[in-house]
């Protein structure tokens, strides 16, 4: 059982912990409970309170004995008997259930609205009857006095099915293109439906006429809310005769009094997700609204948050057990969650032992597991010199860091910085001394950071005080005394850079004013150094000097801007000249490039040509090679194309081929001369 607390409200999660398989023997279950602490501490309030894959809707019968839930896969309904704390029956269905309603006090009469436009009726023994509505349904409500079922969905009509006569009646024609939800007031039986256009239409079932229209989409948009698109109605719930809560698809909940077209309060979930469920808790005047991510409980009069819960998995439906502090949710997970909040009310009578259990836990609070561990990041481990422990059993990875034993952390910190305690002690002593000094009568001292800005604020404050005295107005608070701006006069990172280009152009007359303030600063520093008491700060010059100065400022503003721009240009020019001098002084060193074997360097232009050629497409390269003669394209007898490539020869290969050619020619000429000499010798012998 997990315990969480928000706004000092204890929330007990009764479904936390691992569930044991059904096929395990009792002996193995007992052995696991001895070994595993989580299994030993878990509370299985209702046996097998889960679905195979996902649970979509959950409801409690009016007598409080049965809890019914629908889910997938396969589509099914499960009924749990709270008196036996176990499952009573399970029935599989032909298609997924959109929503269902328990018509009787127990489980004997149930109506299911299914995805395939089917409406299925179940009795105590099982399936009873099945019919179909003309359009796909999204929600329905049961009108008890007339035994009529009102179906809303992907149509402008509201279909009525009378269960006493067993036939469809004339439908209600609305102005909406589609309707999402509907509800019937339990007191005066007013029928209300929420449309896709963000409106709520109210109908009187007796006369079958529309009696009211609320534009909730317009009312949900306030100054603090940001929405994308038109909000449609996703949830609707009546509370008593006059109150009605409406949930929108953009995450707002509007509480209405039926006598007014304006909402009493608008509550935003700030997640932008459709509101799935709205419940009323009358003991504490709370509204429990839920989207797929969070369950919020808030006061219906003030809108103040009471508490909230964020389950691990997305929420599909929320059910509040009547007259108790138990809350159940259907989730995008097999297990359905059960929460017990003692502040909302007592535990149900079938699990009254929860009250004693929670009282014992509050009397003997146990320290959480995280009290013995310290969360550290990777940077903290490097500073402590423990980065080599990453991956070992001493560190447990969690989110963006690790959990480590608090004793190991303290030891490592002492070894990394043995004088940390002494430094901490000195800092505390210094703070105590400064606190005692603050109680003494002090001089008006300027801060260490932004002294000129502080002096300017003091001067303006003095002028404002004089004006307020004359006009008998209240003095405005000083920025120097405001805690929100004290970091600006303490942290050196907030020091105003008066030499920057932006400051000089935005404040062209600051140079004249700053000179006067610098003189005052020098005087104040001298007074502080001598330890003299500082008199009240001067309020400025006389009225005639101020009037002349204002006229000079009006005339000289443009000249001062030009002067500052001229100075900035000169400074930029000087910087460029210095850069040029530095470039001239730096010696350029030669760079060497390596050439591959078998290649000969020609020029850098060849490499540039190669790069340009590689960027071209294959078609362009083939055309270029065909022009140069290295490619020959011809048609074959079969009808296909034949391409013949000639490789380019390097300069070394070309020289080698020329040398071989000359060598062959020389050998040919030698053979010819030798054969010619032989023939001449033979002729000479014949003549002799």
Sum up the structure in keywords.
Beta-prop_NOL10_N, Methylamine Dehydrogenase, Chain H, extended, 688 residues, repeat, 28% strand, five-stranded antiparallel sheet, four-stranded antiparallel sheet, Nucleolar protein 10
What report would you give on this structure?
By secondary structure, the chain is an alpha+beta fold. The protein contains 14 helices and 34 strands. Among the domains are: 362 residues, 7 Propeller (Methylamine Dehydrogenase, Chain H); 67 residues, no CATH class. The strands form nine sheets. Strands 1-2-29-28-27 form a five-stranded antiparallel beta sheet, with no helix packed on it. Helix 8 packs across helix 10. The termini are far apart.
Uncertain regions: pLDDT < 50 for 5+ in a row? 532-549
Shape estimate = extended
Query: Percent of residues in beta strands?
Result: 25-35%
> What is the count of DSSP helices, taking H or I runs of 4+ residues?
14
Briefly, what is this?
This protein has 688 residues and is of the alpha+beta class. The protein has a five-stranded antiparallel β-sheet, with no helix packed on it. Helix 8 (451-471) crosses helix 10 (510-530).
Give the arrangement of secondary structure elements.
Layout: E1 2-6, E2 9-13, H1 26-35, H2 37-41, E3 54-60, E4 66-72, E5 76-81, E6 86-92, E7 97-102, E8 110-114, E9 118-122, E10 127-132, E11 137-143, E12 148-153, E13 157-162, E14 167-173, E15 179-184, E16 191-195, E17 199-204, E18 209-215, H3 216-220, E19 233-239, E20 243-248, E21 252-257, E22 265-268, E23 275-281, E24 286-291, E25 295-299, E26 305-309, E27 315-320, E28 326-331, E29 337-340, H4 353-363, E30 373-377, H5 378-384, E31 395-398, E32 401-405, H6 406-416, H7 420-438, H8 451-471, H9 501-506, H10 510-530, H11 543-585, H12 604-615, H13 618-628, E33 631-635, E34 641-645, H14 651-687
Antiparallel strand pairs: 1-2, 2-29, 3-4, 4-5, 5-6, 7-8, 8-9, 9-10, 11-12, 12-13, 13-14, 15-16, 16-17, 17-18, 19-20, 20-21, 21-22, 23-24, 24-25, 25-26, 27-28, 28-29, 30-32, 31-32, 33-34
Helix pairs in contact: 8-10
């Amino acid at each position: 059982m997990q315990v969480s607390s928000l706004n000092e409200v204890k929330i007990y999660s009764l479904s936390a912990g691992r569930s044991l398989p059904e096929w395990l023997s009792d002996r193995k279950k007992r052995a696991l409970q001895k070994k595993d602490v989580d299994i030993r501490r878990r509370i299985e309030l209702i046996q097998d309170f889960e679905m195979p894959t996902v649970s979509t809707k959950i409801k409690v019968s009016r007598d409080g004995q049965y809890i019914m839930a629908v889910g997938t896969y396969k589509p099914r309904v499960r009924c749990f008997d709270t008196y036996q704390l176990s499952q009573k029956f399970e029935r599989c269905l032909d298609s997924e259930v959109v929503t269902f309603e328990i018509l009787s006090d127990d489980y004997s009469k149930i109506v299911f609205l299914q995805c395939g436009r089917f409406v299925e009726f179940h009795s105590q023994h099982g399936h009873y009857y099945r019919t179909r509505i003309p359009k796909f349904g999204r929600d329905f409500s049961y009108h008890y006095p007339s035994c009529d079922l009102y179906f809303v969905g992907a149509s402008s009509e509201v279909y009525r099915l009378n269960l006493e006569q067993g036939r469809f009646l004339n439908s209600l024609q609305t102005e909406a293109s589609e309707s999402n939800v509907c509800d019937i007031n339990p007191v005066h039986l007013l029928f209300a439906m929420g449309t896709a256009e963000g409106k709520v239409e109210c109908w009187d079932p007796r006369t079958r006429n529309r009696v009211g229209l609320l534009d909730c989409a317009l009312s949900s948009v306030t100054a603090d809310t940001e929405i994308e698109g038109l909000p449609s109605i996703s949830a609707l719930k009546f509370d008593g005769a006059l109150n009605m809560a409406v949930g929108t698809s953009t995450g707002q909940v509007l509480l209405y009094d039926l006598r007014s077209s304006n909402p009493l309060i608008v509550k935003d979930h700030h997640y932008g997700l459709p509101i799935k469920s709205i419940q009323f808790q009358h003991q504490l005047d709370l509204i429990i609204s839920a989207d797929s991510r969070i369950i919020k409980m808030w006061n219906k009069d003030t809108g103040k948050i009471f508490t909230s819960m964020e389950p691990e998995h997305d929420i599909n439906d929320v059910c509040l057990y009547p007259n108790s502090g138990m809350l159940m949710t259907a989730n995008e997970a097999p297990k359905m969650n059960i929460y017990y909040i003692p502040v909302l009310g007592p535990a149900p009578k079938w699990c009254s032992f929860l009250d004693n259990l929670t009282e014992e836990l509050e009397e003997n609070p146990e320290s959480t597991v995280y009290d013995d561990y310290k969360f550290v990041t990777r940077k903290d481990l490097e500073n402590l010199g423990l980065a080599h422990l990453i991956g070992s059993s001493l560190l447990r990875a969690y989110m963006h860091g690790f959990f480590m034993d608090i004793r190991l952390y303290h030891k490592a910190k002492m070894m990394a910085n043995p004088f940390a305690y002494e430094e901490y002690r000195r800092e505390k002593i210094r703070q105590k001394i400064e606190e005692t000094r603050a109680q003494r009568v002090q001089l008006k001292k300027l801060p260490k950071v932004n002294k000129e800005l502080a002096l300017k604020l003091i001067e303006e404050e003095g002028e404002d005080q004089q004006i307020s005295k004359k006009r008998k107005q209240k003095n405005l608070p000083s920025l120097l005394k405001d805690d929100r701006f004290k970091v600006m006069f303490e942290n050196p990172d907030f020091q105003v850079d008066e030499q920057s280009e932006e400051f000089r152009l935005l404040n062209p007359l600051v140079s004249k004013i700053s000179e006067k303030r610098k003189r005052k600063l020098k005087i104040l520093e001298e007074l502080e150094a001598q330890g003299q008491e500082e008199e009240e700060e001067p309020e400025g010059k006389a009225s005639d000097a101020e009037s002349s100065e204002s006229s000079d400022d009006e005339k000289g503003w443009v000249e001062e801007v030009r002067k500052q721009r001229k100075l900035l240009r000169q400074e930029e020019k000087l910087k460029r000249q210095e850069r040029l001098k530095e470039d001239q002084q730096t010696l350029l060193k030669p760079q060497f490039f390596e050439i591959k074997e078998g290649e000969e360097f020609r020029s850098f232009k060849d490499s540039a040509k190669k790069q340009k050629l590689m960027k071209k497409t294959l078609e362009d390269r083939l055309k270029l090679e065909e022009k140069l003669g290295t490619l020959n394209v011809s048609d074959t007898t079969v009808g296909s194309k034949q391409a013949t490539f000639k490789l380019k020869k390097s300069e070394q290969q070309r020289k080698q081929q020329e040398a071989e050619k000359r060598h062959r020619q020389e050998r040919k000429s030698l053979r010819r001369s030798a054969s010619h000499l032989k023939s001449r010798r033979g002729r000479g012998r014949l003549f002799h």
